[in-house]
UniProtKB/TrEMBL annotation:
Residue ranges occupied by any Integrin alpha third immunoglobulin-like domain in the UniProt entry: 80-166
Keyword line: Glycoprotein, Integrin, Membrane
Gene3D superfamilies from the UniProt entry: ntegrin, alpha v. Chain A, domain 3, ntegrin, alpha v. Chain A, domain 4
Compartments reported by the entry: Membrane
Topology of this chain in the membrane: Single-pass type I membrane protein
Family annotation (InterPro entries): Integrin_alpha_Ig-like_2, Integrin_alpha_Ig-like_3, Integrin_dom_sf
Segments forming domain Integrin alpha second immunoglobulin-like: 3-73
PANTHER family named in the record: INTEGRIN ALPHA, INTEGRIN ALPHA-IIB
Protein name, entry field: ITA2B protein
GO annotation, cellular component aspect: external side of plasma membrane; integrin complex
Biological process terms in GO annotation: angiogenesis; cell adhesion mediated by integrin; cell-cell adhesion; cell-matrix adhesion; integrin-mediated signaling pathway
MF GO annotations: integrin binding
C-alpha cells in the first residue's frame, strides 16, 4: 500500500539534510519504493545540474549504503520588453536646418525620449541579461536622430553607443 513518509529537514555539518523514516521494524528481504518530490530554491548560480547524496542507514547494519543522483536544472523566465516614445508622434518640418556649432538643444531638433522597460515575468529570477538596442541615427547620410544621452535605473549598466552626444550639446 501507499503511505506518506514523515520527513524532517535539518542541518548536519553545514549541509542541509532531510531525514525520512521508512518503517520500523522492517521484515528481512522487504522491498520498498520511495518517490520524493523536492522543491529547491536559490539555484540561479548552480550551473546546469545539482547532485543529491542519498544514504540508506539501518540500525541493524553497521555500514550505510550510499548513492548519488544528479538532476538537471532548467531555469525558466519569460522576459518582456516594453517601450514608449515621448511624444508618441513627432512631425518634422519639411525644411529643417540645424545650426552648426550650436550648443542649444532646440537648434538640433525636436526632443524625443525613448523609454524601454525590460520585465521578468518569471517564474525564475534572471541575471546576466544583455539587451542590444539598434537605433538608427542616420538616414541617407543625414542625421535622423541625434543621440544625446543614455540612462538606466534598477541596477543595470549600459555601454554608450559610438557617437553619443558627439557635438557635446
Amino acid at each position: 500500500g501507499q503511505e506518506k513518509l514523515s520527513c524532517n529537514p535539518r542541518k548536519e555539518n553545514g549541509t542541509h539534510v532531510v531525514l525520512c523514516e521508512l518503517g520500523n521494524p522492517m521484515k528481512a528481504g522487504a522491498w520498498i519504493t520511495v518517490d520524493m518530490e523536492l522543491s529547491v530554491s536559490g539555484l540561479e548560480d548552480m550551473g546546469d545540474a545539482i547532485t543529491f547524496q542519498l544514504q540508506l542507514r539501518s540500525k541493524n547494519s553497521p555500514s550505510p549504503a550510499n548513492a548519488s543522483v544528479t538532476v538537471p536544472i532548467e531555469a525558466q523566465a519569460a522576459m518582456e520588453l516594453r517601450g514608449n516614445s515621448l511624444p508618441a508622434t513627432t512631425v518634422l518640418p519639411a525644411t529643417w536646418h540645424r545650426e552648426e556649432g550650436s550648443r542649444r538643444l532646440e537648434d538640433h531638433g525636436i526632443k524625443v525620449e525613448h523609454v524601454y522597460q525590460l520585465h521578468n515575468k518569471g517564474p525564475s529570477t534572471v541575471s546576466g541579461v544583455t539587451l542590444h538596442l539598434a537605433i538608427p541615427s542616420q538616414l541617407g547620410g543625414r542625421i535622423l536622430l541625434y543621440l544625446l544621452e543614455l540612462g538606466t535605473e534598477g541596477g543595470m549598466s549600459c555601454t554608450n553607443p559610438p557617437g553619443l552626444n558627439a557635438e557635446q550639446v
